[in-house]
Amino acid sequence: MAPPKRVLCMMDLSSLGRASLGVAGQVLAACGQQACLLPTALFSSHTGGFGPVEKQDEAAFATAALAHYARQGITFHAVYIGYLYGPAQFAAANAALSQYPNALHVVDPALGDDGKPYTGLDDDTARAMRQLCARAGLVCPNYTESAMLCGDAPDAGQAAPALVERRLARLGENGASVLITSVPGPAGTYETWGLSQPEGEIFRLPSRRVPQRYPGTGDLFCAAVVGRLLHGDTLQAAAQTAAYFVEQAVQATYTASAEARHGVWFEPFLPLLQP
After folding, report:
1. Beta strands 55-57 and 78-81, pairing class
2. Burial, 105: exposed, middle or buried (Cβ in 10 Å; 0-12, 13-18, 19+)?
3. Half-sphere exposure of 25 (CA within 13 A, CB side)
4. pTM flag (> 0.70)
5. How far apart are CA 112 and CA 59, in angstroms?
6. What pLDDT is recorded for position 117?
7. For the chain, percent helix, then strand, then coil, each to nearest 5?
8. pLDDT per residue over 209-265, tens digit each?
9. Pairing of strands 190-196, 177-184
10. How far apart are CA 30 and CA 33, in angstroms?
11. Which residues are bridge partners to 104 per DSSP?
């Protein structure tokens, strides 16, 4: 049996609701990897339906933790970065990428969804996220975020294939692999589009759609991709497994008419990710 790979996960920890570090650790563990959770902020819940949240910036802690790891000679196989806000958090994330240049650098750029930027997002945050993505080996935006990263006006209409291909090329121009999720397809479907580097191969994965949006599905997908990549899957195979895992969880949650703001029932489907 191969030893688990260590993944440094830098994003917020939302105590309530299935999102961010609250799901990333479980998903990576199901994939057979060791998730090392380094919160850049603490949230009482995610921001998708629980009203005003309590939050605490942990950028200073994250920076101090990185210094501790350096003193101990700790290495990581991947650095996986999600939601960030404020200059200090972005500085900590950039420091992690510099500290571990040989790790797989993954950025899930939390900027917006459904054709709209997230509430409170400012130009400085968007610019800092673009700069972070330029250092990544894998970038995993949703369709709205792909527009924002490429300087396009975000929208939620059906995507023209040529437009998605242009965004893949733009986001991968520094050699990064790219996965764009929630790409609107025909007849109310969604697709995930991928660019696998260094081959330059483009692929598309269709997904069934339900008439309900759930927070945290992008976090589930990206964490599953990271875990399967470290197991040795190709990008397309990792994305297929991750997409099927999320689709099954979404379908089960929708069928049960569960309260959407708590996220999808992914826990029973974690065995789908096991090596």
Report:
1. unpaired
2. buried
3. 13
4. yes
5. 22
6. 87
7. 40, 20, 35
8. 888 989 999 999 999 999 999 999 999 999 999 999 999 999 999 999 999 999 999
9. antiparallel
10. 7
11. 78
